[in-house]
Amino acid sequence: MTLDTRSKAEVVNIVLAKYQNDSSMLVGILQDIQAELNYLPREALEMTAEVLSIPLSRVYSVATFFKAFSLKPRGRHGIHVCMGTACHVRGAEKVLDRFQTELCACAGETTPDMKFTLETVNCVGACALGPVVVVDGEYEGQVTAEKVKSIIEGCK
Ligand code: FES
Hints:
Layout: H1 8-18, H2 26-37, H3 42-52, H4 56-65, E1 77-82, H5 85-89, H6 92-103, E2 116-121, E3 133-135, E4 138-140, H7 148-153
Helix pairs in contact: 1-2, 1-3, 3-4
The structure holds FE2/S2 (inorganic) cluster.
Residues 82, 84-87, 123-127, 130, 132 line the site of FE2/S2 (inorganic) cluster (FES).
């Protein structure tokens, strides 16, 4: 069975079984569910709370505390434009503007075709390479507005 054919409930059950329904592992459980489903659907959070016998509010508080978690569906490709100080002074604003124009999506949004989610981050620890853009976990350094289109086209 592929991930595409797995239901949300099946994914949650598999992840919870992996963690032996241990509520102290809630962060890891949510990370794994998101890794499988690409976001944390409401049904998955409800099911997690029920199976772990913990309040749904606790699950939501963890899911909303960490920026890495998303309660909305994300695009297949994640583009994170660093807006930290070092990147900002080297032109990150222009890079972000170009991504927003090319994708017709603002930072924090996902394109209607679900292909891209554009987000900003504050320093990814590679300041010397700035402006930095992280595409699907891969760092691109010294990004200029002119390079944006080819970065997008490089995402299959
Ligand atoms: S400010 Fe962008 S990597 Fe540090």
